[in-house]
Design goal:
Helix content: 40-55%
Radius of gyration: 39 Å
Strand content: 5-15%
Structural class: alpha+beta
Distance between the termini: 10 Å
Number of helices: 34
Strand order of the largest sheet: 18-19-17-16-20
Number of domains: 5
Number of strands: 25
């Protein structure tokens, strides 16, 4: 057994078999798709680790230096030595930083099963090699072309001998040895330097242009002399008519042995842009946090009576988004952000009726009852975990269909990870430090350089990072660009306790430390709390830090003689709700200005208030005397309110004052209502009651709607709610990272299955089994072998098909055989089990060794 462990592995499966449980657990944490579902044994695990989809996912999660290391292995020999890899990464003049970082990068590739083998026989997984070095006609990401052997594969033997002679090498007996001689020349630094020393200056310039890639160039049917010199010595090799390529060995010599122009072993530091006092940052962020909850509340208040209709394809129309933006006094992209955030938090949804519209959900009423800090925490937690991406609104999907707010196609599974990582980088900076935006983006590009086919483009991750910085400021997670204390707590990085009475140091606004923030001893690579208990604790800590910073709601306003009221701060909920009905918001900011109008007073009267109620309300909540013009306005509107009564016939108008009805009949604006007198005090209309109410109000009257019993109908604007709705679930970015319990169970199952599949068996008379094939024996042979194993106490190897039809191989030690069942200790499951004999396909004895 020790000899097997020390021998060099011959396959990835053998390399995995030599790992301990901790190493396998690290692999499955890094690549959770490998245990979905749990593989039956280590051979199947190795096979799955080499599939294209799994390897692509693993490569996408490498940082830039680890990816450069894998790319270097893709262009190296197979297998390669550690010295060869170091030469490709560091070149002729080794960089100490590269030499120091390479073991870490290689260990990471080994841990993820992308590289296996000892340092003297390093092998990159074949699928990764194919992805990173696609073939002769497709240059690798390092900018290197095909090897000389690949480039000359279709060349005639005579032409190859001509190349050998032109390079000053002795002729050979076959093309294989000729290409080997040329390869030896190109990889010999001294001889290659001597050859290039004879090259014309223009030839060296051509090589310089192709050296770092792309390695392909165009030539005419009659190439110039300096190109002919290169072609005759295989420094340029024709691939297709009119196209030549620089062989890989020649390019590596010109590069000084390096596979990459600029290896990046060290991540770029996140540079500070400004430093603010921590208290100023927290205060600014708290103001933004309060504004965030107020904006969501204002949005849903605007949709109280039923929001905009749902498009047939789903989502808001462009027109409705514009109307919402005007109502919120925000640009359309910001309005889309708040609409999406309320939707993800479960505060709004479609009502599901025939005329489907968006409206607030019952969860919105519960949210309103919470303290402001808890309301903010729900919004911030939702934003951190949401995969819906409002920044995409207004764009188009892959099929050129427009992307609308609340519509399909906005989920991006990478969004939560990018948000957590951006905020993690901010958490690594000293408190009060705002980062340089470009340095944050550069750091993220280093950490995840490969994202699909557009790896060098300004891709989605960059845009997600930019949106994160903007949205974090809008939500109050950051203030002045720096992470606030409650934002750190929400991430699970609560700030160190400080003296609240300590003053900020002089010049703190302009003092930028020399030490890069991401080099401080802060656990910025630690992910945000994942389990519910940790998340709840982080949220509670954030609420505790934010609550004292939020302004206390006021219970008063300042009434002015110009029919306005000034709220010098946020108002308590009952006061704010009543004032929203009684007056119209004229302007918002540090103070909110409300204006009283006849229509707003009539709205309060329609809601069931009387004139005396309104006078008492204003007198109670005003710090200034109630102005006489406001008193007159309320009395005047109340005196006229309800003198006209509108009910349903088609519709009718009744009034005790027949002179007022005569005035209506004489008004030309009433022609569209098609009124006729039924009695001295009653007019009938062909319009419905709602249209009749609006028409009379437009004419300057103050009618009131009445019920069939003749009572005045009270209208309330907050009656529309959707049925209970659950918030939309984020779209996961692949399988979740398994917890310790699942990992332990998976590793145990894989180990046990591997024991069963690799256990040595005694030879049988039948033909040898193919890999994975179950043993086949007759019922009599199976029963006899089981009974013999019970007597001898030996273990046997069986094939078993369970009730669901799933086949497996197991190693068992039979204890008892009776009644058509065998009771045995199952080494695969590590427990005693009972198996029906008719489900055992066959049995074989294990070899003695």
């Amino acid at each position: 057994m020790s000899e097997h462990q020390t021998a060099a592995p011959r396959s990835l499966a053998e390399a995995l078999r030599a790992r301990d449980d901790a190493s396998l657990a690290a692999l499955l944490r890094a690549r959770p798709d490998l245990i979905t579902p749990v593989p039956t044994d280590l051979t199947q695990l190795a096979t799955r680790a080499g599939t294209r989809a799994s390897v692509v996912r693993a490569l996408e999660r490498l940082d830039r230096f680890a990816l450069q290391t894998a790319e270097a292995l893709a262009v190296a020999g197979d297998p390669a030595t550690y010295g060869e890899l170091l030469g490709l990464m560091a070149g002729d003049e080794p960089d100490p930083a590269v030499a120091a970082a390479l073991p870490r990068a290689l260990a990471g590739l080994r841990e993820q099963a992308l590289v296996w083998g000892d340092d003297d026989r390093l092998r990159l997984v074949r699928t990764a090699r194919e992805l990173l070095a696609p073939g002769p006609q497709h240059p690798s990401p390092t900018g290197l072309g095909p090897t000389l052997r690949e480039a000359t594969a279709g060349m005639s033997p005579g032409r190859i001998q001509e190349l050998v002679a032109a390079a000053g090498l002795p002729s050979t007996h076959d093309p294989v040895s000729a290409v080997a001689a040329l390869t030896g020349l190109f990889t010999d630094r001294a001889r290659m330097a001597e050859l290039l020393g004879e090259a014309p200056e223009e030839s060296r310039q051509v090589l310089g242009r192709l050296m770092w890639g792309p390695p392909y160039g165009q030539v005419t049917a009659e190439p110039a002399a300096h190109l002919r010199w290169l072609l005759d010595r295989a420094l340029l090799v024709p691939t297709t008519p009119g196209t030549v390529v620089l062989p890989r060995e020649a390019a590596l010599h010109l590069r000084g042995g390096r596979a990459h122009r600029a290896p990046e072993p060290v991540p770029p530091a996140v540079a500070p842009a400004a430093v603010h006092p921590a208290r100023a940052v927290d205060a600014t962020a708290a103001g933004q946090a309060y504004a965030a909850t107020a904006t969501v509340e204002e949005l849903l208040k605007d949709w109280h009576e039923g929001g905009p209709p749902v498009l047939r394809s789903g989502g808001l129309s462009v027109r409705d988004l514009k109307r919402t933006a005007v109502a919120l006094d925000l640009p359309e992209p910001l309005a889309a952000f708040w609409v999406e955030l309320a939707y993800c938090a479960g505060l709004l949804a479609s009502d599901g009726e025939a005329d489907e519209r968006y409206a607030a959900t019952p969860a919105y009423d519960e949210w309103l009852e919470r303290p402001p800090a808890e309301r903010w925490a729900l919004l911030a937690e939702t934003w951190l975990a949401a995969t819906r991406t409002p920044g995409l609104v207004g764009g188009r999907d892959a099929k050129e269909r427009p992307l609308s707010a609340l519509g399909p196609g906005l989920d991006r599974s990478a969004a939560p990870e990018v948000r957590h990582r951006v905020l993690g980088l901010l958490a690594a900076l000293p408190e009060g430090t705002a980062p340089d935006r470009e340095s944050v983006l550069a750091r993220l590009r280093w950490e995840r350089p490969l994202r699909g086919p557009q790896r060098h483009d300004d891709d989605l991750r960059t845009r997600l990072a930019e949106w994160t910085l903007q949205e974090a400021e809008l939500l109050g997670v950051t203030g002045r660009g720096a992470l606030a204390g409650h934002g750190r707590a929400l991430l699970g990085h609560p700030p160190e306790p400080t003296d609240p009475h300590a003053d900020a140091p002089a010049g703190a606004e302009d003092d930028i430390p020399d030490t890069p923030g991401d080099k401080l001893p802060v656990a910025h690579h630690r992910p945000a709390p994942a389990d519910p208990v940790a998340r709840a604790a982080a949220s509670a800590a954030a609420v505790r830090l934010l609550a004292p910073l939020l302004p206390e709601p006021l219970d008063h306003v300042l009434l002015q003689a110009d029919l306005t009221a000034v709220a010098p701060g946020p108002l308590r909920r009952p006061l704010a709700e009543t004032l929203d009905v009684l007056a119209d918001v004229e302007s918002k900011g540090g103070a909110t200005v409300y204006r009283f109008t006849p229509a707003s007073v009539r709205r309060a009267l329609d809601a069931g208030r009387t004139a005396s109620d309104l006078h008492a309300f204003l007198a109670e909540h005003s710090r200034t005397p109630v102005p006489q013009p406001l008193t007159y306005l309320i009395d005047d509107v109340a005196r006229r309110h309800g003198r006209l009564r509108v009910g349903a016939a088609s519709a009718y108008v009744r009034c005790d004052d027949d002179a007022l009805l005569n005035e209506i009949m004489a008004d030309k604006r009433a022609a569209g209502l098609r009124l006729r007198r039924l009695a001295p005090t009653v007019l009938a209309a062909q319009a419905d009651p709602a249209a009749l109410l609006e028409g009379l109000r437009a004419m300057g009257f103050a009618p009131a709607a009445e019920s069939a019993e003749g009572d005045v109908l009270i209208t309330r604007s907050d009656a529309r709610r959707t049925p209970p709705r659950t918030a939309p679930e984020p779209v996961p970015d692949g399988p979740p990272v398994p917890d310790a319990t699942l990992l332990a169970a998976a590793i145990r199952a894989v180990r046990a299955g591997d024991v069963a599949s690799t256990a040595p068996r005694k030879p049988v008379d039948s033909a040898p089994l193919a890999a994975g094939e179950l043993p086949r024996t007759s019922s009599a042979e199976t029963l006899a072998t089981m009974q013999a194993a019970v007597l001898t106490g030996e273990a046997v190897w069986i094939g078993y098909v369970n009730a669901e039809g799933a086949a497996s191989q197991r190693v068992i030690a039979p204890v008892r055989v009776e009644g058509g069942f065998v009771t045995a200790y199952d080494h695969t499951a590590d427990e005693v089990r009972t198996y029906p004999l008719h489900r055992i396909t066959g049995v074989a004895e294990l070899a003695d060794d």
